[in-house]
Amino acid sequence: MNAGDIHKNPGPFPSHSSFSSVSSCSGISDILSLSNNLSFVHYNVQSIYNKIDILASELTDFDILAFTETWLNDSISDDDLLIHSFHPAIRKDRFGDSHGGVVIYVKDCIHFKRRPDLEPNRLECLWIELSLRNNKRILFGTFYRPPGSDSVYNTLLDDSFSLAIDTGIHDIIVTGDFNWNIMDQRSNLKIASLCQENNFAQLIQEPTHFTENSSSILDFFFVSNPRSVVASGVSDHFLEQELRYHCPTYCILKFCKPKPITFTRLIWMYDQCNFDLLRQSLSSADWESCSNADVNAYVSNITDTILSICKNLIPNKTVTVRPRDVPWMTSAIRRCIRRRKRAYKKAKLSGSVEHWSKFRRIRNDTIRSIKQAKSTYYINLVDKLKTCTSSSKDWWNTLKPFITKDSSVSIPPLIDPVTNMPTTSDAEKADLLNTYFANQTQLNDDGKIPPNPTVPPVERQLSSVTLIQNEVEDVLRNLQIGKASGPDGISNRILREASRQLAGPLCSLFNYSLHSANVPLSWKDANVCAVFKKGDSSLPNNYRPISLLSCVEKAFEKVYLNIFTITFMTQIF
């Protein structure tokens, strides 16, 4: 026993929840990855401040995070508790004591509001109201009931439950650490009475709290509609707590939520490219075959030729971007987490001391990997700031993670000004923003008299324009690198590195567009990004658009602007 590697109670013992459609031994990450349902998790963390990174990495797939015994006080600001891709924390600290306390995090794609009217002053509890699609409303409450609470405290708890029921919201979920062990007969009767009075069902039926010599069920999930439960149970404890600890409890409901968005992105590794070989290949390309009477087909042929050669000669890779992951999350960490979950499942099924010891070792390795990954991430950022090769824009972009306090990585639910209801899907939010942006271009000029300025006599005319190759090459050679490419995927870096080789074919394309008085349709396309300005982030009118156009088209505009300037500015000055 003194060696520290053998414990009287090595871990939880197998049991199954009568309400759960999935065994709690199943990997919760597998359940979440296959589910488009609303998920909740509760965890008694016994001090949250120094565990934020671990919790953010482990629980990022859940929609609602509830933590008890947060042990926070006024010296810790909300900015210190931000979790990537979640709204800022809703918290209630214990007054005059740095113990107890509750915190709730809500995914930034879900609209919610706090319900302080359901929170009696003395109780350590939080209530929020979630708004989902089709005007679906859900009440969610999180409680921490200290051990040895008196009858007055218990009465206030009953009152809070009653207030929630009186709201008329059909679906109510309550979780927390109540410090009633339902494996004890007296406590079990109290929980049964609480469920009967409020018409609740309690889902957790296996131990959630462990000490050196005992196990107990102290953490609960109450639901008003058990038929909506897809899965519930107890997951593995992933925090570095050896002797006395709680396990996370979870509940998944069959309510639709916004799907997590992942997308692929082509990454060009320019630092590994042989640009001399690239220029040689572009010089020997058959540009004459790209010519076409249809300017749209002409542009498409030029674009395809450039990209085809670049993809063969510039090392590149396609990466999957998960915007909701913390920035230091790597595939290696994901493998560690999966390995730990398999070890937990094996130890829980076998009950072997050896298997539990292996699980704890893998768990600790996973914690170290997460901490090391975050440390490495910020060290690399610092090293990048120290280099003198970065442009001013790159330098500020690198500095942003250190100074920004905004944890959001996506546009939150937007309020539809017509229905006054929140929209959660990306398509709905895009439509709202597009409608607002388009309306800003429509001016009401009814009854307005247009100005009649005095136009001086024109001495010079620009009746026709023919671009020459040198003019195009000069513009391409001076393009700023680091600018985002447009929908066609051709960047300024490619145009600048091969300015001499691309000047000829692009000059022919530009002249054809000018002489035919036809702008290619692809040059009118743009990737539009909505940027939040200030105020309420749920209102579309607090955003402004940024359009990412084709770099080739912008180069064409610069060439024409140069000629226009030379022709007319000398007359003015």
Q: What is the typical, i.e. mean, pLDDT?
A: 85
- Can you tell me the overall shape? elongated
- State the end-to-end distance: 93 Å
- List the domain count as a whole number: 3
CATH structural class of the largest domain:
Alpha Beta
Low-confidence segments: 1-26
Query: Which structural class do you get from the secondary structure elements?
Result: alpha+beta
Number of discrete helical segments: 14
Protein described:
The chain has 573 residues and is α+β, with helices and mostly antiparallel strands. It has three domains: 28-256, Deoxyribonuclease I, Chain A (4-Layer Sandwich), CATH 3.60.10.10; 263-322 and 411-442 and 459-572, no CATH class; 331-403, no CATH class. The protein contains 14 helices and 21 strands. The protein has helices at residues 28-33, 52-58, 151-166, 185-198, 275-283, 295-313, 331-350, 353-386, 392-403, 426-439, 469-477, 492-497, 499-516, 551-572, and strands at 37-44, 64-68, 90-92, 102-106, 111-114, 124-131, 137-144, 171-177, 201-202, 209-210, 215-216, 219-223, 229-234, 245-246, 249-256, 263-268, 316-321, 414-415, 422-423, 527-532, 543-548. It has a six-stranded mixed beta sheet with strand order 3-4-2-1-15-13, with no helix packed on it. A six-stranded mixed beta sheet has the order 5-6-7-8-12-9, covered by helices on one side. It has a three-stranded antiparallel beta sheet with strand order 11-10-14, with no helix packed on it. Helix 7 packs antiparallel against helix 8 and helix 11 packs across helix 13 (499-516). The protein is elongated and about 100 Å long. The termini are far apart. Mean pLDDT is 85; it is low at 1-26.
